[in-house]
Amino acid sequence: MKKLIFIFGLILFNSCTASTTAEEENLVSGKDRVVRMEFNTTLLSFDEIRISYFDYKTNTNPLVVHEFSYDAAGQPIPLVLTFENYDFRFINGEAYRNNPSTEEISVKVYVDDELVIEEAERGENGEYAEIRFNYDIVLKKNI
Fold it and tell me: What stretches in the chain show pLDDT beneath 50?
């Protein structure tokens, strides 16, 4: 009987431990991490892109439509999103232009000022430029 109670207790302990681990799988403990995403275009006049990213704090995918601004020389000013104290394992998002322009859009993602993702796409043959990313901070790679 004691063996049966021990085995049942061991199974119960392991199942509780496994569920806690699964819930915490998206968290990365440690220092106060800063994640910065920069979105840009090569179009030298009016341009806009749609940006979506997974917000782990609110469990939502906010959609931001961004119309680029231009400096005095006519160069586009990048849209920069910065997340302080980012303690999540993944950085997940996308950027796309809602028209088939052949001009380039680009995304750079930094973790603590280290460039971890740099991608650019152009629309072609009527297809829209689209960039998707899902960076794993633990594995240090875009998955």
Answer: 1-20, 22-23
